[in-house]
Amino acid sequence: MSAELPDYFFRTRENGAFVFRVDAENRQRRIEMDQIAVVNIRNGEIKPHGDRDLDEDDMAAITTWMEERRATLAYRDIDDILRTVDHLNQTAHWVQTRATEEQIDAVLNPLLLSMHDLRSVLVRKRTDRMLRERQDPES
Length: 139
Known about the structure:
4-stranded antiparallel sheet; 2 helices; 139 residues
């Protein structure tokens, strides 16, 4: 583990983070974290905490973190969907090889309705995209 601490710490939350400036160079040699801002990933808003003014280094660190966080969340979205595909495949195998009639009855309606809903949304999105591409082939 590296002994050097980062200059900033981002305590993530559902829609962003609380931003802290990290200070380990004090007389007591304690790690101090001073909240400097609140970040909202969804709308890109950066609010200084209290009466603070954020300097260029603060803003650069925050915007870099926001870009990296958005990329991480986008990756996780796709990864979650690919895991869902794996779960659906495992579910099909389970139904075919091990499930009892009672177990199938317990999951049948919720699973079929969820799959039907997903299929409807996917088909509608694909159709909308195809229609847009026909109307504007250069997009």
